[in-house]
Prior knowledge:
Blueprint: E1 47-53, E2 59-64, E3 70-74, E4 78-82, E5 91-95, E6 108-113, E7 123-129, E8 157-164, E9 170-179, E10 186-191, E11 197-201, E12 258-261, H1 280-284, E13 285-288, E14 295-298, E15 305-309, E16 315-321, E17 329-330, E18 336-337, E19 340-341, H2 343-347, H3 351-359, E20 367-370, E21 388-393, E22 409-413, E23 418-424, E24 431-440, E25 446-451, E26 457-461, E27 465-471, E28 483-485, E29 488-489, E30 493-498, E31 514-518, E32 531-536, E33 539-549, E34 555-564, E35 570-575, E36 581-582, E37 587-596, E38 600-601, E39 607-618, E40 621-631, E41 635-639, E42 647-656, E43 662-671, E44 673-681, E45 686-689, E46 692-695, E47 698-703, E48 707-712, E49 719-724, E50 731-735, E51 741-749, E52 758-762, E53 786-787, H4 793-796, E54 799-818, E55 829-835, E56 846-849, E57 857-873, E58 884-894
Parallel strand pairs: 13-17, 29-34, 36-43, 44-51
Antiparallel strand pairs: 1-27, 2-3, 3-4, 4-5, 6-7, 7-8, 8-9, 10-11, 11-12, 12-13, 14-15, 15-16, 16-20, 18-19, 21-22, 22-23, 23-24, 25-26, 26-27, 28-30, 30-32, 31-33, 33-34, 35-37, 37-38, 37-41, 39-40, 39-42, 42-43, 44-47, 45-46, 45-48, 48-50, 49-51, 52-54, 53-58, 54-57, 54-58, 55-56, 55-57
Amino acid sequence: MRSARRILSVVLAAVTAAGPIAVHDHHAPPAEGRALPAAAAAVPTGFREQTVFTGLDQPMNIEFAPDGRVFVAEKAGRIKVFDSLADPTPAVFADLRANVHNLHDRGLLGLALHPDFPAVPHVYVLYAYDAPPGRTAPYWNDSCAGVGGNAGGRCVVTSRLSRLDASGAETVLIQDWCQQYPSHSTGDLHFGADGMLYASAGDGANYGVVDYGQLGSPANPCADAPGGTMAPPGAEGGALRSQDVRTLADPTGLDGTLVRLDPATGAGAGGNALAASPDPNARRIVAYGLRNPYRFAIRPGTNEVWLGDVGWNAWEEINRVTDPGTGPVNFGWPCFEGAARQGGYDGANLTMCESLYTSGGQTAPFYAYHHDAAVVSGETCPTGGSSVSGAAFYPATGGDYPAAYRGALFFSDYTRDCVWAMLPATPGGAPDPASRRTFVAPAANPVDLAIGPGGDLYYADAAGTVRRIRYFEGNQPPSAVAFASPTSGAAPLTVTFDATGSSDPDPSDAGLLRYAWDFTDDGTVDATTPTASYTYPDGGPYTARLTVSDSLDAHDTVTLAISSGNTPPEPVIDTPSGSPTFAVGETITFTGRATDAQQGTLPASALRWRLLQHHCYTPQSCHVHVAQEWNGVAGEAFPAPDHDYPSYLELELTATDAGGLSVVTTRRLEPRTVDLTFVTSPPGLQVTVNSTVRTTPFTTTVIQGSANTVSAVTPQAGHAFSAWSHGAGQTHVITAPAAPATYTATYVKQRLPRSGLKIRSVSTQETVDETAPATRVLDGHPGTYWHTEWGAFLARYPHEIQLDLGGSYKVTDVYYLPRQNLSHGRIANYEIYVSADGTNWGTPVATGTWPDTTAEQTVTFPAKTGRYVRIRALSEVAGRAWASVAELNVGGAPG
């Protein structure tokens, strides 16, 4: 099992506005007609989480205007605006759904207001555009079924950065960011203290395999360098787009970068590190080598950018760009993850990564946390999977939070459902990774953090709410918790209410809470006891409001929806039936219906389908993201998406009646899996499968039909890759078969590159035959040779030749190829030495006799570290007048 996302990418399309989808192995809905309270967030003493806005459809980004308005971007493409924090009914500021590609992680994710808003009434958006390069939206109409699904590498889109005016009219500033896969899409937007606009975006690559651009049909849809079908070592596609600015000889893309822009034009801002480049995209880039920089924050009063970059299988990163005028900064993806080399991409021996390993230039994360480790020791936040999903700085001055939080960086993780604070070590200083605190645990699907009016922290909950974390100095308000049963049914409907779960954090208020029930929300208090009942007549829906007050009149309020004279609909999934299974790429057809006691059979317009992808780190620990949605249909079909294992699919059908009551039913689809076994010859060497390097032999379980990138790590342990048992190249893709399979990578002893070897000396050289200098033993041609002086061998032996390896190596082998003409001389008895300095040789590492043959001979011996190798010929094959050598080479590893 691979432990990471891995992402996620960041999924970010988590759950319905009605509430989060359970991610347990089985999905038991609440008892019918009983309203349950949401789980309370655990926050530090003095803080309280409050829900500000509800009823949103996958809110992704929140922005606060100086005039009190609050803008919320929904993933599908609508921007809603609330007149104030007290406004429960937003207006639609702009509807971009026809242009936005809303599928999987793609959607409207970035939102920013001009610094002088509303005097300059510009709203900026960053979103996936629903069309391939050169085409016009709507092209895909949020569905990739026609080209094999969203994970097949054929549903290609670009992304847009646009400016909206006061009426919502759109002006496109940039259209770029080619995205071959549905994850690692666009990211965030913010203005710096310099008035420039900053934007981030992911690499648009496959999140399940090592992706250098080899997947998809037609090949290379993003026109990545060097062109045509991508293959190692020269490929620059897939995740390597994040390194594109390093190769300025070809046009530069913006995938996997942070850009700094002139907000009026979208051009690269003056002062950028590459402002003088002839490439317009290079002029925009201030940081690159990013996988999925989903959210970032700019430190107040500065242009420092603090990026949260979602990792693959191991590390989540917070990266710091201290000065956008220097660099640009390379954070290393995909060659690095965290501070270390990424095993999958390292194993593929790609030139873009190998050159980075050699030359350096990668900047390590400011802070990184491993998927298997807690961010704060002893906290309740789960481990095993991660996706950093929010970043916001608390003001250095002002605000109601305690002084320790001034200048702190808040960051969140969608998969772990937690928010942390990284506090400055000194007042006015930068956040210190050693000063981390758990701030909200659990949080509700956090996908964006923002500081709002009064300095409070707000976050967008992908399930449909916006939440605020408030601080109360001194007396704290109570927490109102209410149950109602039933919440719907035939009229007259008698409902029992229970508020005994309410509490107050102040010990002095224990037992002193006061309750006020307003069963019809008309301003009249109907009951003042913790439990009560009320009978509702036909009509409604009704809202019951509970207000709980403490001894100092601080209070909290909660509402419950009651529907009298109406019962919930009953949705049914007809197909797939039973316990369906799938392999990647199989077409799955689904159909369903719903009936209602009041309306009869509901029309298709009352139905909403969603395909949920559950990605698990253990059988008990999963996160969920929406792979696709269908609204207003009784049935449809989709190709089963590719995903690493363990994972499973779930079809969700929501039926909503005319009275607004909704019921959800689901059907789980289990993948059909297969075991793939990897061995090496000799055994015990390493092979990379997707993201992970493992020592053979090992077996991994994958989904049938899934794509899996495999690399035979080379060189390693004195060996070099020779061949796969199934005839593939060193790095390739295996489409998982239906039956278990074994794949063997054969290795040969590693030979040092001839380009690094030199002749140090020879004891004798034939002077008559000038075509036989000693350098011939290193030219790679078996037909050329060096030999000793003719006729002098017996009188002058032992003869020798010395090799300079050019550096220190652990030498384990010497390869000797005799001259191919049998009538000429060959070495018979020999000695081999290895020396660190070329002076002190010690005892031979090997002695022996070579047979009278033209076949290459290999001498293997225990590893000895040195730079110089000496081969001594003690005697020749009988009857020959000299000793000849066609080729020499040495095996070993850098030492």
